[in-house]
């Protein structure tokens, strides 16, 4: 008898929640693209950063395996491992303990290199690409960031 009452109550409740009318004043929105789950993938790309002609190296452990969807490792920390599609260069650099925007680089040791007399420049696959940070990483991509000479 108790089970019968519980079933009737649950069935009545579930019918009410399925038939809730949407008022004319409510606004329905689509899920933003940024919240949609990315497709799993598995490829590599590469990057280099030069400041005043000196290549920055990322062999310190603080740079390695900082995220599951995009990361670098030893023994070659210039290789970017990408595990989800749609990951941008900004997404990748935001996992590392330094800051990089199209105007400024602040290293892990807090050295600052910002546009002024010298310029921060981005080269994607050997072509200058000022908006490279906004682009999704593609298989085999090579990003070079330079500041100064």
Q: Would you give an account of this structure?
A:
With 149 residues, the chain is α+β, with helices and mostly antiparallel strands. The chain has a single domain, classed as Ferric Hydroxamate Uptake Protein, Chain A, domain 1, CATH 2.170.130. Helices cover 15% and strands 29% of the residues. The protein has helices at residues 2-18, 89-94, and strands at residues 40-51, 54-55, 70-71, 79-84, 99-100, 104-106, 112-114, 120-124, 127-128, 142-147. The strands form 2 sheets. Strands 1, 2, 3, 4, 8, 9 and 10 form a 7-stranded mixed beta sheet that branches. It has a 3-stranded antiparallel beta sheet with strand order 5-6-7. The longest helix has 17 residues, at 2-18. Mean pLDDT is 81; it is low at 1-36.
Number of strands: 10
* First-to-last CA distance: 84 Å
Shape: globular
The SSE order reads HEEEEHEEEEEE
How many domains?
1
Query: What would CATH call the architecture?
Result: Beta Complex
Instruction: Please give the CATH class.
Output: Mainly Beta
The structural class is alpha+beta
List low-pLDDT spans: 1-36
Count of alpha and pi helical runs? 2
Major beta sheet summary: 7 strands, mixed
Calculate Rg over CA atoms. 24 Å
What is the mean predicted local confidence, pLDDT? 81
Helix content class: 10-25%
CATH fold description: Ferric Hydroxamate Uptake Protein, Chain A, domain 1
């Amino acid at each position: 008898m108790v089970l019968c009452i519980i079933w009737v109550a649950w069935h009545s409740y579930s019918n009410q929640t399925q038939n809730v009318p949407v008022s004319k004043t409510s606004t329905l929105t689509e899920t933003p693209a940024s919240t949609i789950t990315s497709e799993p993938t598995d490829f590599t790309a590469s990057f280099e950063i030069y400041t005043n002609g000196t290549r920055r190296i990322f062999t310190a452990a603080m740079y390695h395996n900082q995220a599951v969807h995009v990361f670098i490792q030893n023994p070659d920390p210039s290789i970017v491992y990408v595990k989800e599609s749609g990951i941008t260069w900004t997404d990748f650099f935001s996992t590392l303990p330094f800051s990089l925007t199209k105007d400024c680089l602040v290293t892990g040791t807090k050295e600052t290199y910002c546009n002024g007399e010298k310029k921060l420049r981005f080269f994607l696959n050997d072509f200058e690409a000022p908006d490279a940070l906004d682009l999704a990483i593609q298989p085999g991509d090579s990003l070079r960031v330079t500041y100064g000479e």
